[in-house]
Design goal:
Elements lengths: L8 H20 L8 E5 L5 E4 L3 H10 L5 E5 L21
Antiparallel strand pairs: 1-2, 1-3
Length: 94
């Protein structure tokens, strides 16, 4: 059983965003995934993709109950927008 790691919300977000930028983005950011959610375990680097992120979060928590999860909407700069627009991220690298 893995030991719990105590990170702030900001630390989880920073680590997950770095994992996404360095490794995960190139594997998931394809036309069929645009708009889907990628849930990242900031502790292990494991991730899963689905439409809402719920099934991915459940699966990752089943593997690691102490998972520090962070969700990113693939191809967008925000996961959720309330009353506004969410713009696509330009991906100059790909």
């Amino acid at each position: 059983m893995q030991q719990a790691i105590f990170w702030t919300v900001e630390e989880v977000a920073t680590r997950a965003k770095k994992l996404y930028a360095d490794n995960i983005r190139s594997q998931v950011e394809h036309e069929e995934n645009i708009g889907k959610m990628v849930v990242i375990d900031a502790q292990t680097g494991e991730y899963a993709v689905d439409r809402s992120g719920i099934h991915s979060a459940i699966a990752l928590k089943a593997k690691n109950p102490n998972a520090r999860l962070f969700t990113i909407r693939i191809g967008y700069d925000v996961a959720v927008s309330f009353g506004g627009n969410s713009d696509r991220v330009s991906n100059d690298a790909g």
